Input
Amino acid sequence: KSQRTGTLRRWAGRLGMDFAISGLRLANRQLDIAAEGLIGSTMSSTGFVTFLDLSSTTCAVSAPLTVKPGALKARVAPEPREINWENVHISKTTLLRREQFVNLI
Output
């Protein structure tokens, strides 16, 4: 099977398919960037980790995560029912701006 795949890739390369495929990949990346600009980021700066015991949780929350102070923040997560899952992908900066705007009004 790998010999057949190698032969197909060689023929595709000779036909210029590698150029076409890289063009499609570039177009796909550009569409992703444009969609992210219109819709907003779908990636999150928030992550959740589940620990099985209290000592592991305590150790993880109190451990220095990077050499830069304040770069990453770790804390015990709220209960899953207390999380607004639709807003979990919104960055902390955006949330702070929204909070300041609402407090201003």
